[in-house]
Amino acid sequence: MRLFGRKSEPAKPEELIADFWAWWDDTRPQVDALVEAGDAAGLADLVGPAVSALDPSLLWEVEPGRLAQHSLVVSASGNPELRSFAHRWALAAPEGDESWEFHPSRQPLPPGTEISVDVNGHDFGLDGLVFGLRVPPGTPRVDIAAYHPIFQDIDDDTRLETTLLALDWLLGEDEVARWVGDIVAAEFEPIDAVPAIHLPAVVADVADGFQDEQWAFLEGQTAAGKPLTATARYPLRPVDHPLLDQHVAVTLPYGHADADGQPTEASVEALRDFEERLTAHLAKSPTAVLVAQISAEGARVIHVYADPGGETVAELKELAATWQEGKARVDAELDPSWSAVAPFLS
Prior knowledge:
The chain has eight helices and 15 strands. It has 346 residues and is an alpha+beta fold. The protein folds into three domains: 13-103, no CATH class; 116-208, no CATH class; 215-344, Alpha-Beta Plaits (2-Layer Sandwich). It has a six-stranded antiparallel sheet with strand order 10-11-13-14-12-15, with helices on one face. The radius of gyration is 24 Å and the shape is globular.
């Protein structure tokens, strides 16, 4: 097993994950004993290097489980470049049992859980935490101004770190990524602040307005100053599709365009037909999703995100070969943070 050995070539992600779970199978009795003894330092010395071997930027912790007694969390901690890796780690985990379950992100605490931690010598718990909450009209985000009495006695960075921890307690790490917008850790209590325990209900109310598939129509300009039009899934968030980290761009040059480079009637019909066939194809598989389309300067670029282990690229190349108004192109690259569609992320 090469988990801690030197390698002449970097290991592939799937190899690193397989090595970790082989290590876990061998080492679990030691882990169990350290957890049972409450030996946090020994646990860190044992588990820490194994997680670092996956990627040094991953964070880990042992928490009370939701169904099992204990939960091992290995988290990207908000790093979009590592989110898909953490989720693949969790998918490869052994089946949970009464002792252990495994998660790729922090899970919310059960309602009513009383918890407190020491923050620079001060006791921090949810009971003293309040939020000023604001939901900008029509947006899928809740902006938060957090306040706790100890915030007057700790520095700005610690206030923010403590607030982020509390948000994970209340919502879970992925739900924070989905629904929380601007976060301010305030030194003074916001006007109209409410107890922090009300946040899940506010988020659930916001989420209820975005249950159905929605698309946004946008207009803008290219780098050359030419008009562009776009449609994008709304909300558009990588956290909703953590395993779809391969960006596939299908470029369709159209033969009928106006003076602004936008498609005219004949090409509009051809593009609509192609989109319908593409959508029908993607609907059959959970391993890819259409996220945005941009028309500008005589071409439409269709943005799809896919699981790189699937057949999406080959299938889209086959579909693109049916395009008759010019030579279609299909380009693919890994893009865990969805940077190729960054202007449309919401």
